[in-house]
């Protein structure tokens, strides 16, 4: 595993880009040339200005900030809103050297969009991180462009491993990945909401109900992580024959949770394709 990264430029260090940036800084990994981050407003830039090794630029005060950042970086992370990506790419293209690695965190923007703006030889990797990046527990999908080398991919893997786990997928699976790991935290939060409501319905105070539901999910996932066991095996150990959990699990299975989750993921995938098509 690489013990350093090349100079990084975060163009649009908003919620997701900012989370990745903070993860890199918190990891303590050496950055050969430092980190530059750009944001449109002075307030957003100020929020990152105090991080060690980070040069934070407000574009409203330094309009050429993206150009300056891209020119000096080995890896450029494109984190602006998807609709702004083509204009940004055209802006920075003249400043990029052939060895620059371009990483997209813009949902729905294809590798072809990058190739159209930067040329077919551009080394582009499309990423799909999720919101637990903010606490170093992300799942990030990576899809590589045709000109990306093994060394390029290793660098970008190391970058995203500072905020969690990394999965390499073909670009055709990026949208599907987003329906599981991208949308998945919302599914978990929904389950916690509903378990909390069930506890309130059984007479518990809201604070106690929330504590029970939230800590149960936190504890169960920590146990899964620490044990190395399959989820089905851990479920079996909790589900005593003819016991209370067995009866509750039967109700959940009779509600066809398998089909419900499959349908939910399929619906999210349809919408992802619509968004990519501009619908």
From TrEMBL:
GO terms for molecular function: pyrroline-5-carboxylate reductase activity. Gene3D superfamilies: NAD(P)-binding Rossmann-like Domain (3.40.50.720), ProC C-terminal domain-like (1.10.3730.10). It is an enzyme of class 1 (oxidoreductase). GO terms for biological process: L-proline biosynthetic process. Pathway: Amino-acid biosynthesis; L-proline biosynthesis; L-proline from L-glutamate 5-semialdehyde: step 1/1. Keywords: Amino-acid biosynthesis, Cytoplasm, NADP, Oxidoreductase, Proline biosynthesis. Residues 8-108 form the Pyrroline-5-carboxylate reductase catalytic N-terminal domain. It catalyses: L-proline + NADP(+) = (S)-1-pyrroline-5-carboxylate + NADPH + 2 H(+); L-proline + NAD(+) = (S)-1-pyrroline-5-carboxylate + NADH + 2 H(+). InterPro entries: 6-PGluconate_DH-like_C_sf, NAD(P)-bd_dom_sf, P5C_Rdtase_cat_N, P5CR-like_CS, P5CR_dimer, Pyrroline-COOH_reductase. It is found in: Cytoplasm. NADP(+) binds at residues 11-16. Its EC number is 1.5.1.2. GO terms for cellular component: cytoplasm. Residues 171-275 form the Pyrroline-5-carboxylate reductase dimerisation domain. Its main location: cytoplasm. NADPH binds at residue 66. It comes from the Bacteria. Catalyzes the reduction of 1-pyrroline-5-carboxylate (PCA) to L-proline. HAMAP family: P5C_reductase. NCBIfam families: proC (TIGR00112). Belongs to the pyrroline-5-carboxylate reductase family. This is Pyrroline-5-carboxylate reductase. It comes from Microbacterium hydrocarbonoxydans. The gene is proC.
